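Posting for a labmate who doesn't have an account.
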Amino acid sequence: MNPTEKYYDAIEKILQKIKKKEIGNIKKAADILTEKLMQDEIIWVFGTGGHSIMGAMEMFTRAGGLAAISPIVPPGMSNLESHPNTESLVGYAPKILDYYRVKKGDLLIEINVNGINAVTIDTALECRKRGIYIIAVTSAEFSKGAVPGIPNRHPSNKNLFELANLVVDAHVPPGDAVVDVDGFDLKVAASSTIAIAFIVNSIVAEVVENLVKKGAVPEVIKSGNMAGGKERNRSLKNKYYWRIKHI
């Protein structure tokens, strides 16, 4: 089997696990988002890691995605501009939540596949303290495979899956990479981006179906590369201009 076939098989196994084990939690998450949207509230999404931040970007102004998504993207979080890197900065999370004005009763989707770093755990702990509901997209298996005391861990050695109100497990293995190459001692080819994208887009699809069944008109972004897309999206962006920072 060549590396591409190995990678395909590994990703398929992860997606099968999500399909088999997480459908109930995906639907629960969708129900919660639906309720918030029916109340004309926005949904906060925070990818608390150098690559997990892509989970928040996947939900924001995305073709086929929900309009009322407000990403939290503080300086230094993405690996593209993490100089210095802030995902391991203890005490940063409360300042982030203050800056974005995430308040009691809000819903925050926290995305971090390993679920162990400082900003991830501080965010979860601070949300619990402030009465902010957390839906976590993370991998319990990965968290358990990251031994206590390693440099990237939060000083508490807690895991995101232990702190969230609801967890959708991405079933990504420890270390993220999934392909063995003969003659090389490390696995290659990360799996978490695909797993996370599958989960968040599944939640979006379930939310839209919920809204339609309730007789509501879902506010969904259309590709700006298609006829009428820019016009449709402009009206949605105008609606949320003062409520979503990065729109």
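Reply:
Got it, the structure tokens are right above this. The chain has a mean pLDDT of 96.
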